[in-house]
Write a structure and sequence with these properties.
This protein folds into two domains: 271 residues, 3-Layer(aba) Sandwich (Rossmann fold); 189 residues, Rossmann fold, CATH 3.40.50.2000. Helix 4 crosses helix 5, helix 4 runs parallel beside helix 6 and helix 11 packs across helix 14. A nine-stranded mixed β-sheet has the order 3-4-5-2-1-6-7-10-11, with helices on both faces. The chain is α/β, with parallel strands linked by helices and 489 residues long. It has 19 helices and 17 strands. The structure holds adenosine-5'-diphosphate and alpha-D-glucopyranose (GLC). The site of alpha-D-glucopyranose has 13 residues, from helix 1.
Length: 489
Amino acid sequence: MNIVTATAELTPIAKAGGLGDMASFLSREWIKMGHKPIIVLPKYSFIDTNKWGFRNTLKTIIVQMGYWLEYGLLWEGKLPGSDVPVYLVEHEGYFNRGGIYGDPNEYADNDRRFIFFSKAVFEVCRAIGFSPDVIHAHDFHTAFTMSFLKEFYRIDPLFSKTAGVYTIHNLAYQGKFNPETALKYAGIPWSKFYPFSDYEYYGLVNAMKVGIMNADKITTVSPNYAQEIRWSYYGEGMEGVINLRAADFLGILNGIDYDEWNPETDKSIGVNYNKFNLEGKRQNKHQLLRDYGLSDLDDLDMPVISMVTRLAEQKGIDLVVNKMEELLETTNFRLFVLGSGEYNYEQFLRYLQSRFPKKAIIHIGHDIALSHRIFAASDYFLMPSRFEPCGLTQMFSLRYGAIPIARETGGIADTVKEYNYENMTGNGFTFWQYNADDMAFAIRRALGVYNIIPHWDKIRQNAMNENYSAKQTATHYLDVFRWAKENVQ
Ligand code: ADP
Ligand code: GLC
């Protein structure tokens, strides 16, 4: 199949979170299976084109915005570590800035930037003569491709057999825009903007709704989140729209690249290990702690609970703010956090570090190589998310034998199961209520298994025996693409 991935993020070139990982993991799997994926991404100015081997094709991309034309430049290269073609769309005005979505606040012209990019995706296909079986759009940034396919491009033979599949990674970010400008940029006539129409959402244009209403099929990133968002608690006001499209909607569990994320071969970690020999894991822990200024005198064998996370409300950081100080005071463990995001959370974590210099190690920033080292070094991984469409970090932690302590929500509930001492099943420790005491209780239960043979060995084996590989995810998407194509035969 010819598959176009239209995305605002791509790991490792331009990553903010799991969306970038999935865009990369899926295409890598599809190309291994003999399909022809291509990826289209904005050329953000921070992308190091030399390092990643991109070249300027000198081809101009002409984009019809409303009644006027705008121009982009086409760059081409490969997804690092694979043969997947990646096309970057350069536009000085839109993408020559510090951030992907904002810096730090959302850019005020995100409607214009992403509507331009969503049209450019089709023009890239024209420029390279690529006739897609499917355009796979991700989140609100590229949601307009679903509408443009139907409104403007299917009349072109290049796209007459192209299906549109839209994947929701996070309903919390919807792209709510001023209709006067958004419709003008999109070239969608006012006559299509009326109460309850595809383009109207409480008097605004809502890109998420545009994607959901216009796609042939809609997916989200875990079966459990697919159920949760049919109701108002998790639906973020989109539950009515989701239920309208229920017949074409399903959840496909994300997966991770098992080659890139493999403790046996991972080059970012000091000592490779596997589930039969976890001694290497202990050595990784000691190395990491020493790098952060601790010595053998500081009991390097104390359990380490880590977090690798965006510091955003979604991730349950409020529970950590509420309880971590008390926990560190009363309980024997070390906390290691790698994260960046909201200033208040960063400040709180800095405070924790100053209060517990030997017990709380805080690294504010974004560092992919360090994240690998942390998964390899940790005994536990804390993920108290308020909501979590899927979550990839619990999958990384399982793969690296770091036991998740996580809230049962979204994709976490599909992947992390409470350990049962009697029959020795389960791979982690969970809590359900969004409540700091419940989180603390789960942490205490989790610490209770540390070094208790045979349970400590068994739970880590269970974790490392799980199979959440992106291969299964990629296969599942292909089924959905075939299903979507039934609409355009
Ligand atoms: P989300 O996309 O909501 O942030 P996911 O768990 O799906 O959550 O994906 C997060 C991705 O971003 C993972 O690959 C995780 O390792 C990575 N990540 C998050 N914060 C950092 C950080 N500070 N440094 C490096 N990687 C990070
Ligand atoms: C979003 C979600 C996260 C999910 C990721 C990849 O960022 O917050 O839960 O794993 O997308 O689908």
